[in-house]
Amino acid sequence: MINPDVLVASQWWFRERNAHQSYLDLSLSTVFYFVQSLYHVTRNLSLQSVSGINSGEKKVSSSMHTTIGIFVSPENYANFRAVLSLVGDLYNYLELVKKYNLLELRSKIDQLYDACNKFRDVRNAFTHLGEGLINLEKHGVNGPLKTNCGIEYTETAKNCFHLIINDEKIYFTSFKKTNEIYVGQDAYNSIFDIARSIYAELTSHKLMKEIQTYEPVDSMFPI
Question: Using CA atoms, how far apart are residues 163 and 130, in angstroms rounded to an integer?
């Protein structure tokens, strides 16, 4: 679970600053392992709807009403779930990395964490789907409420739940709120852009540079 270029570059980058931390070399290389895995699965990500939300609105007036609509193929849904899992791996692992003395890398690691963490709520909605469905009083919404996914909850609707994938957006309820987020292939580009800038910084070290050959920055996560 390591990226060898990051492992070596991290060592020399921190040694150049008289701040070498061997555990951080391994941690940063592991971060790049997760990013590379995420990049791989997003190259095949397609969430275009097979059949979408019907035109017009669906009015819901009853309580404890549940709507689940996944309008993508099983193969694409499976790939999307892998994307969410890897994003979760990243922001969870970065919480550990952020505790280290990162020197000039601090701001970039914080940016990478923020880019991953914005998917936390939707990742949790799928990972803890059972919690959302069972505990509607906690995760359902009350009307009157008009959503952007074709559902309108009337005044009598209480503790209602929906989870819908349609045209690269996820619409879901959690903690008494309705949410939506874009999750198409380019939604993750900022993660790769920031990771590329971290790689460029690490491989910019001058110490022992003459004996090191790294993968070119431009070839990391081409978009």
Answer: 12
